Amino acid sequence: MDHLEETMEDYEYYSYYPEYSSPEPYLEEKVYLGAVHWVSLVLCGLAFVLGIPGNAMVIWLTGFKWKKTVTTLWFLNLAVADFIFVLFLPLYISYVAMNFHWPFGIWLCKANSFIAQLNMLSSVFFLTAINLDRYIHLIHPALSQRYRTLKNCLVVIIFIWLLASLISGPALYFRDTVEFNNGTLCYNKFHEHDTDLTLMRHHVFTWVKFIVGYLFPLLAMSICYLCLICKVKKRSILISSIHFWTILAVVMAFLICWTPYHLFNILELTIHHNSYFHPVLQAGIPLSTGLAFLHSCLNPILYVLISKKFQARFRASVAEMLKHTLWEVSCSGTVSEQLRNSEIKNLPLLETTH
């Protein structure tokens, strides 16, 4: 009984995103969990390696090269959210690689958690907005032409960032560090002594993220996709099949990447009552977190890179950039040749003057 009480006291510090840590497991568990954590690191590393150039390219094109439209504004903000998120991934990768030891201090613990949740949520919200916008644009063109303006788009964008900030805000207040198992843990300190209040806040925090950051967006995207199929079949509307495959791919990627993450977060709520699922959480939370992080590098691939229009505009932008660069080099070469010829012509004159 004493051992159980000590174990449950250890679980006081548990909330696994990305503050996950664990007591010393048995030797055979170490090998298994080590392999799972390495898989998590590979997923996070892949998200970083692919997410930085992919989202940076989208930001460069939509923010600086292309004309500002409703579509480019959606993709710009989506890419900004994903880019900022993957930019902070090395902190989480280091955290897992150092056996869940946080050496970066309390302020980075707060800031990293806030920025991670802010950009994860805003990314999900922008995906939902893009799906709704595409559905209205294709099925209700008159309504789209009337309300689909840059001004209205900016209002929705500001609302999305504010909503994501509001949901992520508690991380700035509750995040804390504590010395634990010869290391430093970055975790949600919901309350220091009141167990009931800790449990209540943990439940609210988890369910709000699940409902607002997963369930509603998934339902919205799925309903848009199903309605699009029904409307097209009913009205015999001719729409390129690339739209169907793109939307389906986006919904499936969202489902595959985010479902395990939220399921394990809900399962984690049982840790306050018993330790039965603790080994499952030890393996599942880092793995599902890495899979969720991977979604940040899939957005530019699914939504932008598979678009034929994007590919054409990208090739045109690159061709224009190369043409401009070659023109500058050519001009530079011409100017240097002119200067050289001028020096040669003036050389005898300079000699005679001496």
TrEMBL record:
Q: How does it sit in the membrane?
A: Multi-pass membrane protein
Q: Which Gene3D superfamilies match?
A: Rhodopsin 7-helix transmembrane proteins
List, for all copies, the residue spans of the domain called G-protein coupled receptors family 1 profile.
54-303
Database matches in PANTHER family: CHEMOKINE-LIKE RECEPTOR 1, CHEMOTACTIC RECEPTOR
Q: Which UniProt keywords apply?
A: Cell membrane, Disulfide bond, G-protein coupled receptor, Glycoprotein, Membrane, Receptor, Transducer, Transmembrane, Transmembrane helix
Q: Is the Disulfide bond keyword given for this protein?
A: yes
Family assignment? Belongs to the chemokine-like receptor (CMKLR) family. Belongs to the G-protein coupled receptor 1 family.
Methyltransferase: is it a keyword of this entry? no
One of the GO BP terms on file: positive regulation of cytosolic calcium ion concentration
Q: Where are the transmembrane segments?
A: 35-61, 73-93, 113-132, 153-174, 207-230, 242-263, 283-306
Q: Gene Ontology terms, cellular component aspect?
A: nucleoplasm; plasma membrane
Q: Name one GO molecular function term.
A: G protein-coupled receptor activity
What protein name is recorded for this chain?
A: Chemerin-like receptor 2
Which top-level group of life is the source organism from?
Eukaryota
User: Could you tell me which species this protein originates from?
Assistant: Dipodomys ordii
Q: Where in or outside the cell?
A: Cell membrane
